[in-house]
């Protein structure tokens, strides 16, 4: 706890030094901890901003609103328009760059009205070890990453969230729905609706950690923890899952025997990058 306390104090001191701030607030655990820290450090001089589009899973906006109210931070909701950008729709590996560029540009446009001097995100040190094109967008827009600067890993974030009594301290990572679409397959609202409803069905079966990945030919690749594989193979549930996903528009339904892996689509990047510039 002493180490976590030191990191917490550094985080609060860092944010207090900004004077005013807007937090890019998805309602996930990382941005929620930053929002809580911003409210503690700056009070009314902090605001949480949530972007909404077809890539936001059902229920996430309501949860973000509830969390902002619980924290006591001002909350703004804005509609983002990444789906009008052909570079985003094309779904190359830098898709997240275009999404974050849209979000940060929108928040920057609100800065004067909100009376904020800096935008904060929820990136932590563990995010620096994966392919994260959104971090490039953050750098280009001078977005600060206070969790990184304060030395937070994901485990630290969860511990601090639990210490602060935040109800999502153990919430599984919930990246946007577009992250489920295999690179090179066009991102469309219709496909994201298929994915969202498929994942809702699985959650109704008691699963928390899961992904439904969309692949070419309307193929669904279902990822769940290894200890849940047997459950999905039970005849009754297997038949119900197959029927439901096909009713949504999936032509094929597969169960990934490697189990759930966050960012599993990024494993393809090593192959794809052979034909791309090294700084892509």
Written description of the protein model:
By secondary structure, the chain is of the alpha/beta class. The chain has 2 domains: 2-163, Rossmann fold (3-Layer(aba) Sandwich); 177-268, GMP Synthetase, Chain A, domain 3 (2-Layer Sandwich). 45% of the residues lie in helices and 12% in strands. It has helices spanning 2-16, 29-42, 60-71, 86-90, 95-114, 133-140, 146-149, 154-163, 189-204, 229-233, 235-248, 269-272; strands at residues 21-24, 46-52, 74-79, 119-120, 211-215, 219-223, 252-255. Strand 1 (21-24), helix 2 and strand 2 (46-52) form a beta-alpha-beta unit. Helix 2 packs across helix 8. Mean pLDDT is 93; it is low at 271-280.
Q: How do the strands and helices of this protein lay out in sequence?
A:
Blueprint: H1 2-16, E1 21-24, H2 29-42, E2 46-52, H3 60-71, E3 74-79, H4 86-90, H5 95-114, E4 119-120, H6 133-140, H7 146-149, H8 154-163, H9 189-204, E5 211-215, E6 219-223, H10 229-233, H11 235-248, E7 252-255, H12 269-272
Parallel strand pairs: 1-2, 1-4, 2-3, 6-7
Antiparallel strand pairs: 5-6
